[in-house]
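Hi everyone, sorry if this is the wrong subforum. Our group has a chain we'd like a structural model of before ordering constructs, and none of us has done structure prediction before. Sequence below.
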Amino acid sequence: MVSLPHPLPGAVGLSHLSAYDWEAADGVCGGSPHLHLVCTEAYVVTGGRGAVQTLSPDGYREVPLEAGTVAWFTPGTVHRMVQGSDLRITVLMQNSGLPEAGDAVFTFPPDVLADPERYAAAAKLPAKEGPEAEAAARKRRDLAVEGYLPLRDALRAGDNGPYLAFQQAAARLVRDKVPAWRELWRAGALATAERTGAQLDALASGTPGYLAGSGSYDSRPSRLGGYGMCGRRDEYELPGTTLPYHGE
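Answer:
Right subforum, don't worry. Here is the predicted structure as C-alpha cells:
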C-alpha cells in the first residue's frame, strides 16, 4: 500500500491556476475541457474575472467567476476554464493523487477516445517546460476543444445522447486503472476518514494517546507555471497532492 504521511486536510489535492490565454477554435481563450471519473473538483477564485463552462447530461452552463466565487464539479461533469481578465484560482481536488493517475479524461474526439494508445499519446506532454511543452499543451487543448464543441452543441439542442456516450467512453478508457486508483484511495482519502474514526474511539474511551503525535507542517510550491489541464499550474510536492504516481 502507498504511504501518505501527513496529507492535507481530508487528503485533498491543492494547486493554483491561471487561465491559458490561447484562443481556441470558437474564439474563447481558456483551458482543456475534461471530466473526472471519481473526483469532485472545486475552484476557489482568488483574483480576476472569467468563467467556467460545464457540460452534464442536464445541459450546458456558463458560470461567471470572480474573487470570492467557489464553483465545484462532481464526477462526470466536463469543465472548461475561460479567461476573462487575470483570472487566478486555487483548486481543491478530492482524492488527491487520482487525477494525476488518470482520473481526468479530456474531451478528445470519439475516435481518439476509442483507442487507448492514441489517447495516451495525445494526452501526454513530452516535456515539463519550454517551447516544446507549450506547443504540446496547446495542441492537447485544441484537440479537447474539437471534441467538446459537438457535445456542447448537442446539449444546447436538447440532445444528451452524445454526452452520455462520451461519459461511457471515458469510463471504458480508465477501467484498467481502477486497481491502482483503489490503492491510492485506501492510502489517502479512506485512511484519513478511518483515522478520524479511530480518534473518535480514543476520545470516547478516554485514551487520546494520538494527541502526543501532533505537529505542524508547511510547504511552498515546488513548481511554478506548469502546463495543467485548465491552465498554468503551481504545484506542491506534498504526499498525494499534485505529483504523479506510477509514472502516469
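For your construct planning: The first strand starts at residue 13 and ends at 19. The chain is about 35% helix and 30% strand.
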